[in-house]
Amino acid sequence: MSPSFNSSNSLYDFVVREGNGVKGLVDLGVSEVPERYKQHPQERINKQDSRTCDAPPIDLSKLNGPDHEKVVDEIARAAETLGFFQVVNHGVPLELLESLKDAAHTFFSLPPEKKAVYCTGVSPSPRVKYGTSFVPEKEKALEWKDYISMVYSSDEEALQHWPDRCKEVALEYLKLSSKMVRDIVEALISKLGVALDDSKIEGLLGLKMVNMNYYPACPNPELTVGVGRHSDMGAITVLLQDGIGGLYVKVEEDEDAGKGEWLEIPPIPGALVINIGDTIQILSNGKYKSAEHRVRTTSTQSRVSVPVFTMPIATDRIGPLPEVVKKDGLARYREVVLQDYMNNFFGNAHAGKKSLDFARIN
Ligand SMILES: O=C(O)CCC(=O)C(=O)O
Ligand SMILES: [Fe+2]
After folding, report:
1. Phi, psi angles (nearest 5°) of residue 16
2. ipTM, two decimals
3. Does domain 8-37+46-358 have CATH number 2.40.40.10?
């Protein structure tokens, strides 16, 4: 039997305000997706409308050998087209990837009151946040996802405030992925024909954050979404997905290969997904594309994913690199303070790549 909420507000209070999340709703035994979760038909994800991306993963260990230039080319090509690619031999041990998925399941299996202590306003640290959907107060339809978000400031702070069941593995993952992110950014910048010193490159990645996403099994995956269409706002995202699948990326309209087609990024055991964020699109004056992506849930199994987001610190300014603007003959984006870009990004519901309009020069 499905529980009944007297109004859409009481459902919202239960899921969002009281911190029960979608997991809490599923544990009550919902047999149908509530109205509040039903997406506009255009936003629903039809499995039949997409193909699987068959691009082989890029072997990052080859960056350190004779194939360096070839791998740099592969990375740049992927960033110019789909904005998404998978990597292997990335330096994060496979056992750690398994532990991360286990940690995510363990955390979200906790009783609601143990998770709700990390809700905004009561969390022991402003850098740790448990929540559901993306910006529930702004969304017409909620997303079928709970998450915990952990912003890095120091090891001590992380070990003190990040949840016990996640902190060690999340911290280790964040550190090991930082090296790969740096290598990828260096490769991308070199292909722009620009020399940036180490401190500038580090500056692009000054803020790092690990999330754990939990998508409970959903009675009607065809009516709702796990995550709606969006691009990530930062520089580079490293994403661990489990074996369930459901991550889709959009082929940009102006690509020859298909107009606005969605490709599923298949789970590859041991691989990590790399995704280009808005900051790199802006910095490259549009040469590299942030990837529009979304997530479908399944009716049979809960899915977890663990992204590491990297971006400049809030007070930094981001804009197209002057050398690239000179070569292109025009700037496609204005310079913006990252904090302003973030406020706009996190102040609106997911809406594809609309986030870039904030910096776009028309
Ligand atoms: O769960 C996924 O595969 C993707 C999640 C995502 O896009 C995000 O957290 O920004
Ligand atoms: Fe994303």
Report:
1. -90, -60
2. 0.99
3. no
